Amino acid sequence: xxxxxxxxxxxxxxxxxLLYGVAVWAADGPSAAAGRVIGEASFQTFLPxxxxxxxxxxxxxKKIPETSLQRQEIAPRxxxxxxxxxxxxxxxxxxxxxxxxxxxxxxxxxxxxxCRSRNVRFVLTVEGLEEPARIGLGSWQCGMIRQERRSLKxxxxxxxxxxxxxxxxxxxxxxxxxxxxxxxxxxxxxxxLQIIALPDDPAEVGISVVxxxxxxxxxxxxxxxxxxxxxxxxxxxxxxAILSGVACPQKIQLIxxxxxxxxxxxxxxxxxxxxxRCQVIPxxxxxxxxxxxxxxxxxxxxxxxxxxxxxxxKINTFSDDSAVDFTDTGQxxxxxxxxKINPPLTEQEKRLQAESIRSELARINALLEGWDKAxxxxxxxxxxxxxxxxxxxxxxxxxxxxxxxxxxxxxxFWCLPEKYQLLLHYSPIRKENMAALVAFRDFLxxxxxxxxxxxxxxxxxxxxxxxxxxxxxxxDFLTALTVRELLENDxxxxxxxxxxIRNFNRYPWAYFYPANGHPSxxxxxIQAELMAQRLLRYxxxxxxxxxxxxxxxxxxxxxxxxxxxxxxxxxxxxNRPETSYLCRQILYDQKVIDSDPVSxxxxxxxxxxxxxxxxxxxxxxxxxxKIRIPITSLxxxxxGPMTAIVQQMxxxxxxxxxxxxxxxxxxxxxxxxxxxxxxxxRLMDRQKMLLTGKQMICTIPVSGNTSExxxxxxxxxxxxxxxxxxxxxxxxxxxxxxxxxxxxxxxxEIPVCAQAATNATLLVNGCKVHFAECYAQYRxxxxxxxxxxxxxxxxxxxxxxxxxxxxxxxxxxxQ
Length: 815
What we know:
11-stranded antiparallel β-sheet; 33% strand; globular; disordered N terminus
């Protein structure tokens, strides 16, 4: 099919695609008439079209200005072949599909997809427009081991008709990474593409995407002197993380293609020490015809399981996380509270943190002294009267933005709802979440790190006091009481609301008013300033020159969103209505300040750490400019810091904490009172310790109560899905223990994956068992409990809110 030959002319395209998604493109979906849907694109959501470096060069050669593409959109997980782009090509997104115009031929391709199938069918729904057009379907495989183009089929699409076209493809290795490719000649609207695994699939193939290091390799003969045309060789490979797929041993023998038809493959260059991201399958699951190729092996790794390398790329650093456990029972597990990653904290560091906690707690107690119920009622009544008077200052309709009252206070901009309660009722932090915070603090201290919490005050609490100056001395109760709770549990933190109110006009924007509580320039600057004061005690030696920092005013993370433009019919000072406001970005030597993995300061958080810019250009860059050393930063949205990040540190404490002296946790003050259950690293550690020295005795199979796969479970292997019914309880498993297991203590392991926040309880024989919740990155988490000697039956059940979805794997018993 015309144009496929130049789709991927640059070898760098493999790196691009692997970096943008080395996981299954879409989950196993509903059954189709001719097979199982394993990939789908609806062409109903769209992203701005971005031109990669090789695309820019292609456009320059064709004298096509990149500016002509700025307003065009493309469906997520799709890219353009810039080699086939012409000045007449057009892309445009709409709810009814993706409009593609390629009068001289335009090829677009999906990002990397792992097909667990020998045969697949592409099913494309496409609408013809003003004139007949031509559509082609194909696929592309590209890598160190295989490179192959396939033109599958081509059709003419009638004008004004919506048609569905199909093409089949076959992968001889039984499993293969590939891109689906669509070529357009003319003008059409793409509406939907499905990739269907045909019914003659082999049984579960068992592909895994693994990162790790080459520990040893066998020699490969010279292909020019070889007696056979094809040859493989072996590697000893030690995994660091499984990114997707099924579990496999951490150490494996990897069988790699060396040369084919006497021609050396790029995969023959792999050497000891290389860090690789690989797609592997057990060697015995290859088709029989693929097992007989000549193989050289001088490592004799007979004790290791053999896997075949389907594809790989070399990487510089490992990904942040593992989505799947290695098949390690934990027999040699050492508690994360017993390892010593860094030198212990000094007595002076402990004393200075204790003094900081005492002085801040005394300040908060003084601030809150005398605020009994009678005083709270009196001040609330006075505020309501003052707020009503303040609103009457405006002529009808003026300074109103979608139900909020707008104010320009000394050329800084604020909003408050028409009805607002100044002194809100306070609900304490949940006991289990406070216990998780204390465990996280203790975990860090064991490894020579101190925790400092940076709670961002509520945006309306600050606005109410700025707009109504007579109430600026009234404490921000939500933030103050949250800070006091943390301090009373010996968790270092600070109250920033008073500093924010004093410095309200430092920059035009403190938050994203009128209705978005994420911090902007003033809020982040003050949080960073207060944190920098606390970091002085570590006496970090500055490595960055003060004069090399600079500021530029650029669009914030929400860019041209109409919610973040200066409103009309409001007091906006010298600004023009309907123009987007800008925020400050800190640069060093005129460059963005990147996260530094070896810094002693580690800032973690959610989007309250990220805004007003993208990471790491917000709070991390501001803090860097104030302490003049680069910092490490990591964020996960919403409840992610105390779920996903805690899980990552539990799995890989050395990777995250080596060389760290202080961990800064920045989230909104209100996030401490949300519904997410924090992951308690101490409970996770205790559960894993129960498996130490135990051997697996038997497996208890589980059957879910629903065939519906929740979104968070799409990449889980061997999962059974449960949805809690209207009666708020469902059984997971009932298992009468064999007589030979009743006589002594046993341990039950339950693989669980649940999306935070999860309103459910896991019970074993009526007793609650802790399970970790996942956010953003979904993996199996092991819940483990003791089964006392004499127990005759194991009953596992779920209680909770109807409709709650939980993934559970087959249970295992250890003794």
